[in-house]
């Protein structure tokens, strides 16, 4: 099938198809491959679709075997690692900052409140 786009990471030609499992666009390698795990076909509207094959399942007579470009892109693993690193940094930035200990003349009421709550019968309020 002819390519209809290029990969932003490696610049290779890709074929955009709709995943029948999720309904989202999926980049594919434009050339069929014998070890692919996707069945690629055009529906009656001309849209290219890709459905995952189960273990041992063969594609139908109108389908070709293909592979997602994620599996063959040489720069995809580095892209994923960088994205995970950015997510960790963003989570660390959102984490609450440690607070300073309270001054000596301020009482921590947490212990008192827990003890009081344990003494209260369930269903009643303070």
Question: Please, could you describe this protein's structure?
Answer:
The protein is of the alpha+beta class and 126 residues long. It has a domain at 5-75. It has helices spanning 69-72, 76-94, 110-119; strands at residues 5-6, 13-19, 25-28, 38-42, 48-52, 64-66. Strands 1, 2, 3, 4, 5 and 6 form a six-stranded mixed β-sheet that branches. Strand 2 and strand 3 (25-28) form a beta hairpin. It is elongated and about 80 Å long. The termini are far apart.
Unreliable stretches: none
| Helix amount | 25-40%
Q: What form results from the Cα inertia axes?
A: elongated
Order of helices and strands: EEEEEEHHH
Which secondary-structure class do the elements indicate?
alpha+beta
Average of pLDDT = 88
Cα(first) to Cα(last) distance is 71 Å
| Main beta-sheet annotation | 6 strands, mixed
Q: In angstroms, what is the radius of gyration?
A: 28 Å
Amount of beta strand: 15-25%
Question: How are the SSEs ordered, and which strands pair?
Answer:
Elements: E1 5-6, E2 13-19, E3 25-28, E4 38-42, E5 48-52, E6 64-66, H1 69-72, H2 76-94, H3 110-119
Parallel strand pairs: 2-5
Antiparallel strand pairs: 1-2, 2-3, 4-5, 4-6
What attributes does this structure have?
126 residues, alpha+beta, 6-stranded mixed sheet, 3 helices, 6 strands, elongated
The gist of it:
The chain has 126 residues and is of the alpha+beta class.
């Amino acid at each position: 099938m002819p390519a209809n786009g290029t990969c932003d990471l490696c610049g290779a030609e890709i074929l955009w198809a709709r995943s029948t499992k999720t309904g989202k666009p999926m980049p594919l390698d434009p050339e069929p491959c014998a070890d692919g795990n996707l069945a690629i076909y055009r529906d009656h509207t001309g849209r290219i679709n890709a459905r995952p094959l189960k273990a041992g399942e063969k594609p139908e007579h109108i389908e070709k075997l293909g592979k997602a470009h994620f599996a063959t892109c040489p720069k995809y693993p580095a892209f994923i690692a960088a994205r995970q690193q950015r997510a960790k940094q963003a989570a660390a930035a959102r984490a609450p900052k440690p607070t300073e200990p309270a001054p000596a003349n301020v009482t921590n009421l947490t212990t008192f409140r827990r003890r009081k709550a344990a003494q209260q019968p369930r269903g009643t309020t303070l």
